[in-house]
Amino acid sequence: MAKVNVYVTLKPALLDAQGKVVQGALENLGFDSIESVRMGKFIEIEVNGGNGTLEQDVDEMCRKLLANPNIENYRYEIVKDGE
Amino acid sequence: MAKVNVYVTLKPALLDAQGKVVQGALENLGFDSIESVRMGKFIEIEVNGGNGTLEQDVDEMCRKLLANPNIENYRYEIVKDGE
């Protein structure tokens, strides 16, 4: 079994409204030296019987579903490779 | 400036409804060997003038705001330490 971690983040040029709200909330809690907060997604996928196309498959999953390529970047790492 | 990555994940014992929906959508796209999908949050925080208490501060941020300790686990890594 292969395990893949996918990280989806908003493109840096775009305003992260949710991150701004979290930053404000942290400042209200007394954390006043925060420069920025950006919220992204962390997706853990387990794939049965990893085959040779795992990396292409994951890239395709990201492009077709997990990330919105217009406004988001993604990266992934295969943390446990199947045999 | 310090940069911290925070990962918030649903506790393993709990059903991840959003992950199940994503898994179904991936299966509809033809990825039929997926064992599980779990959705988490990936939060990037930049802190000005990191001081000696950065690690405690980030832990407090997670406990007080970023994660719901009843149902979520969190971990963090300081990827760039302030001076």
Query: What global shape of chain A is seen?
Result: elongated
Quick check: average pLDDT of chain A? 94
Count the domains of chain A: 1
What's the assembly state of these chains? homodimer
Biggest pleated-sheet summary of chain A: 3 strands, antiparallel
Commentary on this structure:
The first copy, chain A, contains 2 helices and 3 strands; from the N terminus they run βαβαβ. By secondary structure, chain A is an alpha+beta fold. Chain A has one domain (2-80): 2-Layer Sandwich (Mth169, Chain: A). The longest helix of chain A is centred in the last third of the chain and has 13 residues, at 54-66. Chains A and B meet through β1, α1, β2 and α2 of A and β1, α1, β2 and α2 of B.
